[in-house]
Amino acid sequence: MPEHLQDLVREKLLAEVEKSELINALKVGKVMKYEGGRFRYLSGQADLDLPMEEAEKLMRQAIRQAEHRREVIISADGQKVFDLHGVPFDHRSGGLLAFDITEVIEKERRMHQQEMQAYREAIAAVTGGRLYLMNGEEMEKVVSEGIELARGEVWQPHDIPEARRAIREALPVLDSRRRHAITLCLTEALTNALKHAGGGCWQARQSGDTVRIIVQDLGPGIKTSELARATLMQHYSTKNSLGCGFTLMLYYADYLYLNTGPSGTNLGLDFVSTDRLKQDQ
Description:
five-stranded antiparallel β-sheet; disordered C terminus
């Protein structure tokens, strides 16, 4: 295994071990019996402040439908998260199991942050600091920097040639090699957005001597476990990944910025010009 990926593997293995802590964090907060419209405490944490109105609704549904019902409820102050299970006994009674999962969710959040940081450092190291994995806040800055040169949307294959035409017209003073690189990378990014997310939007921005291409979609994103392969391994592709087009973009662009998740993927590509771009006032 290449040395530069060993730290990443260690981080992933450590994350798997740390998952065992979730079991310790998951404790039954309260066990109650529901009968005749009333709850009776049986065991667990007696002083646990459950959202009783929501709990009663859940129990009524479970008894009425004669089947187990489950609902995740957030406390009124937003500080606690409960996993409620309603189990019917007969036509008028049942049992309520309430799990306080606040700590579990917090541990999962921290583990995800640690995992993403490991990927960020490993991918940045492998690419010589040219590919950055970014969070949502960081990506918002990337998307808003500079002045807008052109923008468009792609929802059908015939929209891609139109995007190429628009970007060429927006960059008339660039040398032919740079125009070709930008057009090619835009085509690859839009093809991926169309293939994996059904389409998306794009824009070109200029900040000083740098032209930035941004492509955004609302697809399923790239799974964390596939990030390294999807971005670094040539010809690697899954239903949700960018495939071999990403290595091509990494070859032509000077810097890449990637933010991806279940709500979509945002990609920024920087092309640093050797000649200062003239701004059309």
